[in-house]
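HUMAN: Forgive my ignorance: could you write out one protein's sequence and backbone structure tokens?

ASSISTANT:
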Amino acid sequence: MKTKSDFPDLNKKPPLGLKPDGTFYKVLIIDDSMFVIKQLTQILTSEKFEVSGSATNGVDGFEKYKELSPQVDIVTLDIPMQKMDGIATLEKILDFDSKATVVMVSALGKENLVKEAIMLGAKNYIIKPIDRSKVLERIAKILNK
């Protein structure tokens, strides 16, 4: 009797979180909601991304970015946060590292802030509530996969 291993899955794609050299893309999540941090962590780790760290406000997020740099490949960044909002945090990250790859995370109704962030250098955006397929689609677009 044949088993599942007798039929290789020809359509199986490699996990999105693996670089061509086989190492993991590393992600920093900056969001004031622990729920969103957990959601993004679950979505990204399911595709073999490595979540290197997280922060719940812009000040701590920028410090964490400096601490982990240059090992951070992607930053997900909320816009409205305490201490320092996502726009100011984006500016500080890009001043520190002009090649940083930042994806903004925002609720519906904040389109003007998302546009501002894209004009400042954010690579893409994710709209809350978080949708797994949209998160992976937007990240894949940035990684050109």
Residues 29 and 54 are 5 Å apart (CA to CA). The mean pLDDT is 90. The longest helix spans residues 34-46. The first strand starts at residue 26 and ends at 30.
